[in-house]
Amino acid sequence: MKYIPTIILLFFFTPLAYSQTQLSAAFVSPFDFPLLMSGNFGELRIGHFHSGLDFKTQGVSGKKLFSIGEGYISRILVTHGSGYMLHVRYNNGYTAIYRHLSGFIPPIAERVENEQYKNEMWEVSITPDSIEYPVHPGQQIAWSGNTGYSFGPHLHMDLFETKSGDYVDALPFYKHLIKDTRAPVLQSIMFFPRWGKGVVNGKEECQTFTLPTTEPIEAWGVIGVGVKAYDYMDETTNHYGVHTVSLSIDNQEIFRSVVNRFSTEENRMIYSWTYHSHMKSFMEPGNKLRMLQTFNEQNGLITIDEEREYQFTYVLKDLYGNTSTYPFTVRGKPQPFTQPDYKNKFYLEWDKTNTLNEPGLELHIPKGSLYDNVLLNNEILFDSGAISFTYQLNDESIPMHTYGDLYIGVRNKTVADSTKYYIARMGKNGKTTSLGGKYENGFVKARVRELGTFTIQVDTVSPKIKEINPRQWKNTRKIIFKVEEKETDITAYRGTIDGKYVPFAWEIVTNRIVYSVNSRKIKRGVKHTVELSVTDACGNKGKITMDVIL
Ligand SMILES: [Zn+2]
Predict the structure, then answer these.
(1) How confident is the chain (550 residues) per 10-residue block, as mean pLDDT?
(2) What is 436-498 written as a DSSP string?
(3) What's the gap in Å between 52 CA and the centre of ligand 1?
(4) How far does residue 444's CA lie from ligand 1's centre (Å)?
(5) 211-218: long-range contacts at Cβ-Cβ below 8 A with a sequence spacing of 24 or more?
(6) pTM score, two decimals?
(7) What is the pLDDT of residue 271?
(8) pLDDT score recorded for residue 340
(9) Are residues 203 and 313 in the same domain?
(10) What is the number of domains present in the chain?
(11) GO terms for molecular function, please (predicted)?
């Protein structure tokens, strides 16, 4: 009888104690050397947030990668984008993704290679069940590397909540292993006068200022403000994303961002939150990022309607609590601004379905694709000899959350084969990007996820393949080709030795297609026939055949 109170006490206190230790010590280090980061969670990248932590690997590939906890390998992947990858589902409710690995450990390495030969594809996706590959904390699971879209050896490690699928910051689990005494630094602030509603220093377009300001900032009407800032850590020269940004006006907090979780669906909303590396301190109506919070009725926008000084303060904080504060003043001063024409057919509303019909063009934008209302700066460029008109839907590209359907009419059918036509997006520098597309009844149709400048082009040119130092292949046991595809994209490739498939890897950073010769399968010191064919998005095929000693 006298033990019962103790049991009750344990029952009540253990869960609390457990949940606290869970955050400070739930995971062990993935490496057996000191941890340094080259990238943090939620850093701003083009079109997405950085979804994990980048750990430095002392400048080399081939470091032993250890499981950070107790669980099992739930996915084994080889992809062009992330190279060799592992998903490990841990018993504590999280799943880790390890990317850019140089290799898998024995039972998995053979299984992956077998899969490549079986499917005759470099890319592999295997979903083992929970009993096949159990892992323990500190057990080696792979080798770190530099495969896929990676610009130097490092480990990218994502952590997501298994149940919700949300990417979360893994740094709270490793804070005690990584030193950080440096606070974030503000680079510049940007003002966003609202179209037809506000003005800053006599101008209605976005303007940047550095702090402290040399000239007074005078504004009137509805404006937004944003900040460009980076964080820093001890013992590295890298810069990182800022964990917390808070904006107050006259000591009232109106906006706060805490970069700690996002879903795949939210990832693209970075386009709405940021503009030219500045993080807006207001939310456009189509922006549903949960990491952002506003505390006024205007979603963080500010109405300057009194002739007085408004005191703005940015507070930037990292996960360790290192804090920096940046005050500045905005003076309220009446200034005129243009009256917008909301009836203009190029005025698109974010919460409506929008359709544009121009000579030779049709565009359907589903409801909820745009993050905000927009007045397009639309122009059609005529060139009588061209395949189609060139349509500037807007002078500056406007990213959308979901795809719209774009149809452009062919005016001059310069090539009979209709599979060669594609819609190209024209960049400001004159560079074009293929969006693919399908020819049908005089139109080419493609899906677009931004409003920019579009036209039709044809691709009748085959991808070019060039061998790189073939005389060294027998020593390095590495067959290397460089591929050049100027117009569209490479969509398929296949390599063989003596007529039999071998798994060539496509290194997307360098555009090389590489096979590391397997000595068990390919006899050394004798002549072999190596063949590689590469196909682009318009079905043009390039091919190379060589007799070489391997
Ligand atoms: Zn990364």
Answers:
(1) 38 38 70 98 97 98 98 98 97 97 96 97 97 97 96 97 97 96 98 96 96 92 98 97 98 98 97 98 98 98 98 98 98 92 90 95 96 94 90 96 97 94 91 93 96 96 97 95 94 97 96 94 94 97 96
(2) --EEETTEEEEEEEEESEEEEEE--PPPEEEE--GGGHHHH-EEEEEEE--SS-EEEEEEEET
(3) 6
(4) 37
(5) 211/186, 211/326, 211/328, 212/328, 213/328, 216/329, 216/331, 217/191, 217/328, 217/329, 217/330, 217/331, 218/330, 218/331, 218/332, 218/333, 218/335
(6) 0.91
(7) 98
(8) 85
(9) yes
(10) 4
(11) metalloendopeptidase activity
Rounded distance between C-alpha atoms, residue 162 and residue 122, angstroms: 28
Q: Ligand 1 mean position to 149 CA, how many Å?
A: 9
Ligand 1 centroid – CA 478 distance (Å): 27
Q: Specify whether 222 is located in the same domain as 316.
A: yes
What spacing in Å lies between the alpha carbon of 220 and ligand 1's midpoint?
Answer: 42
Residues 388 and 250 grouped into a single domain:
no
Please tell me whether residues 295 and 236 are part of one structural domain.
yes
Clarify whether residues 288 and 192 are in a common domain.
Answer: yes
- Reported as half-sphere exposure (CB side, CA atoms, 13 A), residue 65 has a value of 31
Per-residue confidence (pLDDT) for residue 383, from 0 to 100: 83
Question: How far away, in angstroms, is 296 Cα from ligand 1 center?
Answer: 35
Show the domain range for 68. Answer: 36-173
Q: 264 and 197 share a domain?
A: yes
Q: Identify the CATH number of the domain in which residue 82 sits.
A: 2.70.70.10
For residue 285, give the 3-state DSSP assignment: coil
- Distance, CA 279 to ligand 1 centroid (Å)? 20
Last residue of a domain, one of 279, 300, 332: 332
Last residue of a domain, one of 431, 458, 485: 458
Both tokens assigned to 290? 């949960």
CATH number for the domain that contains residue 535: 2.60.40.10
Distance from Cα 54 to the centre of ligand 1, integer Å: 5
pLDDT score, position 23: 55
